Records
---
Amino acid sequence: MPQRDVNVGFIGLGHMGKPMARNLLQAGYPLVAHNRSRAAVDDLAREGAQPAASAREVAERADVVITMLPDSPDVELVALGPGGIVEGAREGLVVIDMSTILPRASRDIAARLGDQGVVMLDAPVSGGPQGAQAGTLAIMVGGPRDAFDRCLPILEAMGRKIVHIGGNGQGAMAKLCNQVACVLNLVGVAETLVLARRAGLDLGRVLEAVGAGAGSSWMLANQGPKMAARDFAPGFFIRLQQKDLRLVMAAAEEMNLPLLGTALAQQLFRALEAGGEAELGTQAIIKAVERLAALDRPI
Amino acid sequence: MPQRDVNVGFIGLGHMGKPMARNLLQAGYPLVAHNRSRAAVDDLAREGAQPAASAREVAERADVVITMLPDSPDVELVALGPGGIVEGAREGLVVIDMSTILPRASRDIAARLGDQGVVMLDAPVSGGPQGAQAGTLAIMVGGPRDAFDRCLPILEAMGRKIVHIGGNGQGAMAKLCNQVACVLNLVGVAETLVLARRAGLDLGRVLEAVGAGAGSSWMLANQGPKMAARDFAPGFFIRLQQKDLRLVMAAAEEMNLPLLGTALAQQLFRALEAGGEAELGTQAIIKAVERLAALDRPI
């Protein structure tokens, strides 16, 4: 793999960020990495990344800085706070925020960085940790088209489908739309399997048949077998799914938009939070459907 | 294509039945066809089918009789009523009911036919008219395994994935499970697109991005573009979708099983029935989501 001539910085090496950063290394990008806790940085350093002690230092040493962080305040702090990107930034730096955050927050951060001559793209992803590892993420991008075009090879090292949605914040908004589809598909898989189990059907055969017709979905193919096997390990934490749904409902509230199905999914996840199960994977939503039906004991 | 040595009867040549019967003809099966209204029979006769004046006559002339009818009472009438299959049946006849009906009704009909030495399979399908035309349906089958094995080549002429779920009625029940997944995926696509449209995003780009990630589904790929283009032509009629959901909720009620998401989908379709739109395709569910948000005028 030839060494690429763009220095990439990566901030936020969690369940998603770490495999994404690894794919950039493997694609030949020189990588400067920073993370709040040091262990993940050390792991990547052993694979060729240069460690950095702060977001500011990453910005000083990179041409393009990627952030992959939990929520809007985290991105604000890393981008604009003390020791943040803005302190190490120079004219022409590009920041690609791949976190899932509020579209409004993303637009605000882009404007503040723009004041310093820094271009920002919001580029959240879909496909989960397995998509991050395989480099097959869907990436939905907001921001200036020319910056999108220049950064496309970098994004292609992490994803299979990269779509320029529109201006700043529109990638973030598309991600919220994506989460609506995700959680309702997940409710669909859960109710499908609870009905099938209650009726005494073989869940594997039901998944095989439904997965070949009009009821098929990524969630059915990927989370259905885990639900059937009662494997509730994350994957994608319920806690983070609820963070995303809070963003969806906040954006919808700003627009006076009722979303009954999404709200239902949010409340089913809340039932799991109520049961102390926020650290399970999102496929555990089937437990909320079962609990409602007094079927909440293992088979 | 060689002529097959099994005479197949087909009763019910509607939006689904007619293309399915055509695929049997094209696979080389001698076909005896009957339909309540004569025009569809004449169409198929021009393609090589033998017309029959009644279900009884179909049963007299065929080794395997397929029924594809709207609802449980229709199948009961055609199978057991005056001039029905049972009057023309002989020991060893196989009836494959591919309609979507109540699992309990399917079991009862199978038992009544069994008293006359007739074997029944319930084999409902998923994939819509396009799947029926292309011969790519998912077919979920209940009934005796040996009859399933003998009929598999016939089913393979109409479908791509044929799964033996279990005993009589279990194919019908798997189809109800399938409908749960279908309608919740459909709610997901509708809410996704209403949020995207309200936020001013390009719906085509959103569908492209979401369709490549964890939010992807058959419904998003097939119904999403129709929703975005405001093409509400059926496809699959809301009226028939509601019939299926009545079956789901009746089966669930027998088992004291609450299904919040499915019930929500049913009520959104009901809003369209209330608006006199039961003859639209199921993708029109987006109109109910829009109406709730006072967005029910065309873009």
Note: The beta strands of chain B are 8-11, 31-34, 50-51, 64-67, 94-97, 119-122, 125-126, 137-142, 159-166.
---
Amino acid sequence: MNLFMQTAIALATENVRSGAGGPFGAVVVKDGAIIATAANAVTATNDPTAHAEILAVRKACQALNHYQLDGCEIYTSCEPCPMCLGAIYWARPTVVYYANTRAEAAEAGFDDSFIYEQVPLAPHQRELRMIHLPHDEALDSFLKWRASQSRISY
Amino acid sequence: MNLFMQTAIALATENVRSGAGGPFGAVVVKDGAIIATAANAVTATNDPTAHAEILAVRKACQALNHYQLDGCEIYTSCEPCPMCLGAIYWARPTVVYYANTRAEAAEAGFDDSFIYEQVPLAPHQRELRMIHLPHDEALDSFLKWRASQSRISY
């Protein structure tokens, strides 16, 4: 097995054994070396965003001192959920390798598949109640952004 | 205008004025009171996950000492991107109010719409390169999770 994937899976397995959290691990690799590793820490840290991939992306960005993962590879023990997939798009690594699938995660009791079904729906069609309150002042913040000389696009 | 939405929009506008980051703000409300606020901090903190909603969800969970936002409302100056929407599904608040839309965000130069188009695609069809490497050891971590007496489901 690929060494990096082996590391991601070992993090997932150890996380269950230790009782620290869900069976998920992730590794970020650059130039053939691991620059960040993480396991799921949702319940351990009371942070619903503390999935392995989110934590690994954040750590890797701190290591690189940049908000993007240029030239990086992500190895994760499970297909990223929509939250983590979105984070990975924003971080812009080169490739993502994953082992378990969202269907297998659903069988293990996780909401990944459900959230994948919800994301493409129009906001008013989702099970999550979402209400659009348009405001000129909100649009104005976008106009100010476009006009800003000091903005750093990301 | 709703006071909570006004606060979220003010955070977005101030973030541009100060040069701290993108034009996005979010507020979490419980029992009629604000329990967390945040503005986008991606470039300020070198963290691609530091969107206003992610930061507000994390702060609110710390305030509640729980990994879910039971009975909470989220007010955000812009429709959540797929990453933030996923985070909100995991956090399970009651309702989300948003002002600007993903289309307006796209016009302002952000990838929200693009990521919304990518998420529903099969992994191999996405512009992001994703490679499935199934492994028995990864599936075994799910079996161990299901069998664990100490697991805390989330």
Note: Chain A has a mean pLDDT of 97.
